Here is the input.
Amino acid sequence: MRNVSSSIVAALAAAVVLTGCSEVEDAAKDTANSAACKAARSTLDGAKDTIGDALDQIGANPEAARRALDSIKRGLDAAAGGLSGDAKEALADARDAVSDLADEAAQAAEGADIDTSAVDDAKDRFDDSIDELGGAC
Here is the structure.
């Protein structure tokens, strides 16, 4: 009987310790995700202004617009590193929208007419992704 009681106490103690470790791990993950969300929001806020500038010059200097948009894509890729779930998906949506804008700029640099409908759609998707990230974070 005494061995059974000792075994039960040991099992309960192990369960408490493991639960405590799980809580600490969850808290660490939440803190890391919160920091990643803050960095991602900051990146998107800065990108919004840069995208506006790039779109303002897409007709006059599409190659410069493409370079600026490609730079934003790289920044969004870097910001996605610590995110997960809906936040990561929102950032991926933003990156896809910027990629579409960069493609339009590249085509314009090669002499194609700018598809203003496609540009407007990509810009709207980018703006929507900012809202999505805010909701996810």
Remarks:
- Confidence is low (pLDDT under 50) at residues 2-20.
